[in-house]
Amino acid sequence: MSFVKDLHTDEEMAPAVAVLFSAVNENIERLKSIVSGVSQEALEYKGEYGSENSIAQLIYHLINVDIRWVYRLKEEEFPRELEESYGPMTDEDGLLPEVKGVPLSVLIELYDNVLELLKHTVKKLSETDLLKKVPYEDGTATIRWGIWHMSDHNRYHQAHIQALLKEFRKQDS
């Protein structure tokens, strides 16, 4: 018997929307499995020389970027109260803000909340809506690209997280 790997789509979504959402969802689930059970020390490890972003910073960065994408997809301004609770994307030096003392469970719960908001948002999208343009950086992006980007961005930082975990475990042994 062979195992079939596939994206698990939601029947309540337009087909292309469901595939894109599934990719985001599966990458978040993959991230959660990668960091499952890591210690607070590993979560805050900043590399051999202390100059890299920690796993906690990277996860918080993904949460911060994704919540802002949800509001772009909704074609709404990012609410001030969320700006205050999620904080800035970068610090005054243009770096990812420090994340210290925040348990993994809190980060995962925040990410799950963002994913749930994303799911609720994309359920309302049609295939045609995917072609709508939303503001992105100094230009625009389609909603389709935005959802794909959320998935791709997550996977990109998973490589950094895995490298940090490998290095942490090597120096810890």
How is this structure best described in words?
The protein is mainly α and 173 residues long. It has a domain at 53-90 and 101-173: Four Helix Bundle (Hemerythrin (Met), subunit A), CATH 1.20.120. The protein is built from 6 helices and 2 strands. The chain has helices spanning 15-35, 40-43, 55-73, 80-86, 104-122, 143-172, and strands at 133-136, 139-142. Strands 1-2 form a two-stranded antiparallel ribbon. Helix 3 (55-73) runs antiparallel to helix 6. The longest helix is centred in the C-terminal third of the chain and has 30 residues, at 143-172.
Short précis:
With 173 residues, the protein is mainly alpha-helical. Helices cover 58% and strands 5% of the residues.
Oligomeric status? single chain
Examine the secondary-structure arrangement and name the CATH architecture of the domain at 53-90 and 101-173. Answer: Up-down Bundle
Q: Tell me the fraction of residues in β-strands, as a range.
A: under 5%
Strand order of the largest sheet: 1-2
Q: Give the tally of β-strands.
A: 2
Strands, helices and their partners?
Elements: H1 15-35, H2 40-43, H3 55-73, H4 80-86, H5 104-122, E1 133-136, E2 139-142, H6 143-172
Antiparallel strand pairs: 1-2
Protein name: DinB-like domain-containing protein
Domain DinB-like: 27-161
Organism: Bacillus swezeyi
Features of the shown structure:
single chain; mainly alpha; two-stranded antiparallel sheet; DinB/YfiT-like; DinB-like; DinB-like domain-containing protein
